[in-house]
Write a structure and sequence with these properties.
Strand order of the largest sheet: 7-9-8-10-11
CATH class of the largest domain: Alpha Beta
CATH superfamily of the largest domain: Glutaredoxin
Shape: elongated
Strand content: 15-25%
Helix content: 40-55%
Number of strands: 11
Length: 240
């Protein structure tokens, strides 16, 4: 028993000694940044980067870089030139990924094209000009199932239009009539349950979806903005 206890204590001591410098560096970075830049907010994580002497500071899903003393702060892209990889972009993609399987698809309407094998979720506002541009790109896709989450974040009129579309007999048709042909859906009946729209906005806040369109692929990758059909195709292939 004594030998086991002594061995365990030695192992714990060795682990503590090895972790000591890293823990001290992290503590120094946290302390100095909090004192020198209090507006940075709560620091969630401090970790080493592949670049010697450079540390990643994570605040929510925002990434910053600093030295071991927290004397300098960089807000930008860290790129591995040898490997030709944007490390900041890769890290952000992981932090903002959404579990596709956990999306509440009952609060979306679905458009199926071809065999519908590939999956895509999209958050859009009916008053978003970029969304209308993106809808034209979506028409070029085949063999895909698109789950459309109405995400009215651009004011009361967006909520009213979203409610009319959600309450239409054929939601997909009403949506495309408006987005592609500027044909507004009929006013929603008073009896229509449109609480899905409130849940969608809450879902978006939870996942920090701040703009439309926002795309979510089957592997959890999130892409903001009105990208072209070719890029959507590329992401769909990578997500398989």
């Amino acid at each position: 028993m004594t030998r086991i206890t002594t061995g365990l204590l030695a192992a714990l001591l060795a682990t503590t000694l090895l972790a000591g410098p890293a823990a001290a560096q992290e503590a120094a970075i946290r302390k100095n940044l909090a004192e020198r830049l209090p507006q940075i907010g709560t620091i969630d994580e401090v970790s080493k980067t592949p670049m010697p002497g450079l540390f990643e500071v994570r605040v929510g899903t925002d990434l910053f870089y600093t030295d071991a003393e927290g004397s300098y702060l960089i807000h930008g892209q860290l790129i591995d030139l040898k490997a030709r990889r944007n490390l900041t972009e890769e890290r952000t993609s992981k932090l903002t990924a959404i579990d596709f399987g956990q999306l509440p698809l009952k609060d979306a309407f679905t458009v199926v094209r071809g065999n519908g094998k590939r999956k895509l979720a999209v958050f859009e506002d009916p008053n978003c000009g970029y969304c209308k541009r993106f809808e034209r790109e979506l028409q070029k896709l085949d063999n895909v199932t698109i789950h459309m989450f109405l995400y009215p974040i651009l004011g009361n009129d967006s909520m009213a239009k979203s409610r009319n579309i959600w309450c239409a007999k054929d939601r997909a048709k009403a949506w495309q009539d408006w987005m592609l042909r500027e044909q507004a859906a009929a006013p929603a009946p008073a009896s229509c349950d449109a609480t899905a729209l409130d849940r969608n906005r809450e879902l978006g806040r939870k996942h920090q979806i701040t703009g439309t369109p926002t795309l979510v692929f089957a592997d959890g990758t999130r892409v903001p903005g009105a990208i072209g059909a070719a890029q959507v195709e590329k992401q769909l292939s990578q997500a398989q």
